[in-house]
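Sample 3 of the quickstart, ligand WQD:
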Amino acid sequence: MTGGAGYIGAHVVKSLLENDFKVVVVDDLSTGLERKIPEQAIFEKQNISDTKKLAEIMKKHNVTGVVHLAAKKAVGESMTNPSLYYQENIGGIISLLEAMNQANVKKIVYSSSAAVYGDPVEEKVHENSQTHPQSPYGETKLVGEWLLKADEKARDIEWIALRYFNVVGAALPELGDTGVNNLVPMIFRALDNKQRPQVFGDKYSTTDGSCIRDYIHVSDLAHAHVLAAQKLITEKYCGIINVGTGQGFSVKQVMNTVSKVIGKDVNFEISQPRPGDPAQTVADVKKAASDLKWQATNDLESMVTSAWQAWQKMPPANN
Ligand code: WQD
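Result:
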């Protein structure tokens, strides 16, 4: 498991352990936190660019499959420093696939993203919808999928790429998101700083004019990784699977949910639209239901409630 000390990674480790997987966490702690790695997991502090070390770790622990999350994930940063994203995300997966080849490991669950779709033309995007990533971050996630397809042909690997939609919440308050890159943490930070949360644009052609996204609880997302890993163990499979709820919420609806959860009006204001934001991105989740027997169980209110509890317990240091 790469990236197991990160926000989503720590949730995936927790779910894998709860489902009786033996887990080796490989993380360089560049953004992850060691305190998030449970004692039952073996921890190897290692950057994934070192192929030889990765292969040694795989052999030493008799690894039979990889769950790969270690990557850079801030969309904005990827626009200003694209080569860093290509280097880390594509260099990273190339090194990992080569190490798997050396250690004869054939199965991988890969963290992909709804960012590969860009500005979708359909109301709900399915796995065969066109991909038009709008950022180097999204591009690197898509290239990662291509590399998996190529290694399926070249080296007979089996893989599942999970395309995450907008991840929110925490299974435990101490596992909360410590980055402030996304809507819900940005609302919390504004409130902490006694500022008004911003709705980036309200003239989109959506029901209330603000952008619509598919928000998914991190615990539901983590469980999808367990089902994907189990599927690769029990049958031969290669494919891409969307992981969202299939239901869209507008930014204003998220603001109102936060108001409800915290018990006071967040008093948001409308600001300029953010360049590159699609009006609506919602997942078609039929494939997750049919192929993984997975569906989301948590609603938006429970996502925001758990995110708020985590924020209050451990607000990010860069507040
Ligand atoms: C959500 C909505 C903003 C902040 C990106 C990636 C995606 C995934 C999640 C990792 C948008 C609006 C935001 C604010 C706002 N990441 N917004 N006020 O851009 O949908 O998705 O992160 O894989 O792949 O592309 O997420 O949380 O930034 O924004 O109005 O202060 O909230 O315009 O409509 P996004 P986000």
